[in-house]
Amino acid sequence: MRARRGMVSIPARPVAPAPPDHGAGTVLIVGLVAVLLAAGLALVGAGVALARGQQLSAAADAAALAAGDVLLGWVPGEPCAAAARVAAAHSARLLDCSSEGLAVTVRVGASILGIAVERSARAGAADLAE
């Protein structure tokens, strides 16, 4: 072969290999999945607490109506005993029961995710004085 004039031959420099990054994507994905899992569990917990709070409100309403039925003479028995039975059927406990005239007010409670929650309701004849 003949050498070409005017061309200088430069020997090729060895290229340093890129630093290994094997597994970096795995760590990122595991971290992302952990964050999404924690957020999902928090949302599920909030949903459970909200649903149980609504059930507790319904238990207070039902207990007050049961006590009101007894108080008005539609059902025989003791108003607060009827309220306690209905509250227990809703997995709640009767905390307070008081009657004033032809109306009864009840307060029920339960534990939602380890936190004590209370709801109250009133039932009976309407107040005509207002």
Automatic annotation (TrEMBL):
Transmembrane listed as a keyword = yes
Q: Where does the sequence pass through the membrane?
A: 27-51
Q: Does the record's keyword annotation contain Transmembrane?
A: yes
Q: Which UniProt keywords apply?
A: Membrane, Transmembrane, Transmembrane helix
Q: Which InterPro entries match?
A: Rv3654c-like
Protein's name in the database: Secretion/DNA translocation related TadE-like protein
